Amino acid sequence: MNLDTAHLLALAAALGWASGLRLYLTVLLVGIAGHWGWITLPPGLQVLASPLVMGCAAVLALIEFLADKIPLVDSAWDALHTLIRIPAGAALVAGLVSGWAGDHGEAWTAMAALLGGGLAATAHAAKASTRAAANTSPEPFSNIGLSLMGDVAVPTMLWLAWAHPFVFFPLLALSLAVMATLIWFCFRFLRALLRRVRRSAPA
């Protein structure tokens, strides 16, 4: 399937957003879609359809799937991937858009990278802060539940961006609003918790 403007914009937004939650699963799904000819990948993303890249992404996606279910390990994984998810989201969206806009391709690619990085940063911050807050609870079920929600949300949103872009856009807007709210509440909660710990610590 060749991409029209609506599909291109939806997939660009979906790639940036999904990279902030499940980077390796996102890379794997895009590679599979390109490898099997479900979408025509632009030159900047054709490498993702390589069996070697898909194999590496599959292994890392499995590791991330398992690490994301373990309290504290999930937060350590998120902390490490602060340096990976955001630039990767920017690179994926730039690779999708590159070569699409003709004479203005470089400008559009740069704007796409900013969009992808911004969406990845928002999704990553919401995920990391929510999981850090959940880790203050001794039970593991909230972590597992939140992780499974991410496992389902990423392929669902990528599919909607490809198959039903005009359904995807309002869901993305709702998701970003929810994420911004979660970031605000979780940071306030974690800051208050840190203050309580400091006050209770022996002098």
From TrEMBL:
Transmembrane segments: 44-67, 79-101, 107-129, 141-162, 168-190
InterPro entries: DUF4126 (IPR025196)
Domain of life (superkingdom): Bacteria
Record key words, sorted: Membrane, Transmembrane, Transmembrane helix
The keyword Oxidoreductase is assigned to this record: no
Signal peptide positions on this chain: none
A Pfam family annotated for this UniProt entry: DUF4126
This protein's record includes keyword ATP-binding: no
Stretches assigned to the DUF4126 domain: 9-183
Protein name: Uncharacterized protein DUF4126
Organism: Roseateles saccharophilus
